[in-house]
Specification:
The protein has 368 residues and is an alpha/beta fold. Helix content is 41%, strand content 14%. Strand 9 and strand 10 form a beta hairpin. It is globular.
């Protein structure tokens, strides 16, 4: 469908809310998807245009070369890396085909649980209402249910909160004695303060059961290219995952992006700084809305609880779209108490964030 195919804005909302992408074709402001608006620089697109014939006409490289390209970007050995068609491909392999019993804190990114066969997932509730992870209780539950894979997303989605590095190291140690792999999903880590020092990528050599997953779509603003990677010193686990990807799982444009990326390291750092500035400003503006509980974010989005006296999150989300053509995510589909009271708002530019806050105030007041 295109913009001209809708009879009403409500009809447009019903279509959009059932989609998982292609939003740019439908003329609305997207405060739902979570990506860096300030990267990649225009020079990357110029390079794609100049090489488009070669990129379209030729086979891309396979896994060993791709792992080397990622290794150059993150300064890690090739043998520790598996490259996926987005992190989603790697999640599907681990959750759907490798893990016998997977445990994941909730609410979190739904794909880990959704990709697993029925009966193979244990959902561990985060502390409520703080949404903090008690790693000791989580470890105890993982051991109790004989989980062979435990997952922690940090910063978490939808809460936008970090789990402290020291806590995750303690968790890895506890699980290692019980042959449980710890997957730490750092897809939003670049938006946190001082990401180099709080990431666990440098710790993987010391903890053989530690596995880092990372979607590059978010931080690098390349949702359409579909690149993600896995990093681990557990070569047996790496080989098992690698056997699940097909020979040409990454296309030529994604390969070319990986070749170009080392030339734009400083531009990337600056883009993430700008994202943090915009996010912090959005957080402060949202905190001024009476009755709304706003959780301090570490990623590029903000998690909020609507007051009990206003309409539900799905209703507010729909009205925001119909009246203001702005799309956010409600959390009604998440596993958490009072899920229909929570919303997740992606940070965009300062001007767009200001418009969003004014529109949100308007629909909250109109719904009282």
């Amino acid at each position: 469908m295109s913009q001209s195919d809708y009879a009403t804005q409500s009809e447009k909302y019903e279509f959009i809310s059932g989609q998982h992408g292609g939003y740019y074709r439908h003329n609305f402001i997207d405060h739902a998807y979570l990506y860096n608006l300030y990267f990649p620089p225009e020079a990357v697109f110029t390079n794609f245009k100049n090489q488009i014939h070669d990129l379209v006409l030729n086979y891309p490289v396979a896994q060993d070369v791709l792992a080397g390209l990622i290794g150059r970007i993150i300064d890690q050995p090739t043998e520790k890396i598996v490259v996926g068609n987005g992190a989603a491909e790697l999640i599907k392999i681990v959750s759907g085909h490798i893990s016998c019993k997977l445990i994941v804190p909730v609410p979190s990114f739904n794909e880990y649980a959704n990709a697993a066969p029925s009966g193979r997932v244990v959902e561990f509730p985060l502390e409520f209402p703080s949404f903090q992870l008690d790693v000791d209780a989580f470890a105890a539950e993982a051991i109790k249910v004989h989980a062979d894979v435990a997952v922690v997303v940090t910063p978490n989605n939808p809460t936008s909160m970090l789990v402290h590095k020291s806590d995750l190291i303690r968790l890895a140690k506890k699980l290692e004695a019980h042959d449980c792999v710890l997957i730490i999903d750092e897809s939003f880590m670049d938006f946190a303060e001082d990401p180099v020092h709080i990431s666990l990528e440098r710790e993987t050599e010391d903890y053989r059961n530690m596995v880092i997953f990372k979607s590059m779509s978010k931080a690098y603003g390349i949702c359409g290219l579909r690149i993600g990677y896995m990093l681990t010193a557990n070569t047996t686990f790496a080989e098992t995952v690698k056997n699940g990807v097909h020979i040409w799982n990454i296309n030529g444009f994604a390969e070319e992006f990986l070749r170009l990326l080392p030339h734009y390291k400083q531009e990337f750092i600056e883009s993430c700084k700008q994202v943090r500035t915009d996010r912090d400003s959005l957080y402060e503006k949202l905190c001024r809305i009476e009755g709304v509980t706003v959780f301090k974010p570490d990623a590029n989005f903000v998690f909020c609880r609507l007051p009990d006296y206003v309409q539900s999150a799905p209703e507010i989300t729909k009205k925001l779209f119909i009246k203001h053509n702005i799309y956010i995510k409600d959390c009604a589909g998440k596993t958490q108490p009072d899920s229909d009271r929570y919303i997740r708002i992606a940070s965009r530019t300062e001007a767009e964030n200001s418009t969003l806050v004014e529109a949100l105030i308007d629909v909250i007041r109109a719904g009282n």
